[in-house]
Amino acid sequence: MATSVNRLVRKEVALGSIREKLPPNEHIGLQIAPFLDVDSDDVIFDYIKGGLSEGLAPARAEDAEAELALKDDLAYGQGRAAVIDWSLKDRYAASDVTRYRDSLLISQAVGGVTQELNFNFVGKTQEDFEKRLARHDALRRRKLDNRLESLVMTAIETSGYTYNDGKIKFTVAYGRPSDQTNIAPAGGLWGLTASDPIGDLLAVQDLVYSRVGLRPTRGIISTRVLNNLWKSSRFLAAVGMPVVGGTASSPLDPNYLGLNGYNPRGALAVVEQATGIRFTIYDGYYRSRTFGSQTWTTTKFLSDNKVFLLPEEGMNDVLGDAGRSATGPVTGVFDETEIGFAKMLTSPHPEGEWSSGFYEWEDEKRDPWEHVRGTGIKAFPVFPYMEYTASLTVL
Length: 395
Hints:
The chain is an alpha+beta fold. It has helices spanning about 30, 95-110, 115-160, 195-210, 225-230, 235-240, 265-275, and strands at about 35, 40-50, 75-80, 85-90, 160-165, 170-175, 220, 280, 285-290, 295-300, 305-310, 345, 360-365, 370-380, 390-395. Strands 1, 4, 12, 13 and 14 form a 5-stranded mixed β-sheet that branches. Helix 2 (about 95-110) runs antiparallel to helix 3 (about 115-160) and helix 5 (about 225-230) crosses helix 7. It starts with about 30 loop residues before the first helix and ends with a strand.
């Protein structure tokens, strides 16, 4: 029996959603630590820390063989990693589900009345609910992307990751030397006219090279650092401008020179040419607020007053023999795994049909008046060679 039009009562009218401008989606974490599919949540990888002696050879006695090399038992070991399940879900209450189901029933009941009624009255209800599901799906995925970005960037900045949500608690240390973290620039903070950014970077490259035999050639800086980079009087001299005083009171302010090609990015090009470091300008952040609060907090994935240095991109053979380059990828194969400098390990999940990567699920069987949709990923980053990185606090 068809339902008459005057008996169809709408308690609420959905006007759609008012959306604020979202933060820029400029995640670069998976460029540093790309996905690597693994078959289990628990991963083991052997590592050799100086197992092939490259030290000075001892003297050979005239009448007896001298020992040329010693194997250190502590030089061989095994690394372990655990892949963690990160997931989110949205719960749709009885009122959400029943209103959607009622619209489907009404659609069937009035289907023979008029097509216009069926679209304007019922179809709109279905469309609004489906759009709502799509918005929630996209938001869950963005939160997962933010979590992966946080895993990588926090590791790059702190050489570790600490997590505590009241239920799960863990701490991971990736092992960068403390004196390669938050290095104070010898030439002074980069916002000063007497600073020496190029000299600071070369000194850090030499420090890393003296320990591991390779100079970092990738860098990450914020726009804030970039805008202060060119304030050094050394850059003014580089473009042929006379420098008066060399202090902050100098009448030559680079913000007002108006020289063609001389701007923050032009100064960065000078730095790249002198050091061989290719910089990425990065200002990624996420927004959050505590439950019940009206105050939103903006959190940057990396501190905007630091410079982060990384080894060459695509390094699967991080150490090698004497044929290695001082600034580029090495020639000898030492790392026999696929991990290289860093990887984001991701393992299978049953809701993803036992495949790695992102997965989704729906649940409406436990409670007929409730509907649950979720998204997740099993992932965690591995950084076997964090000692090849460094950071400077420049502002």
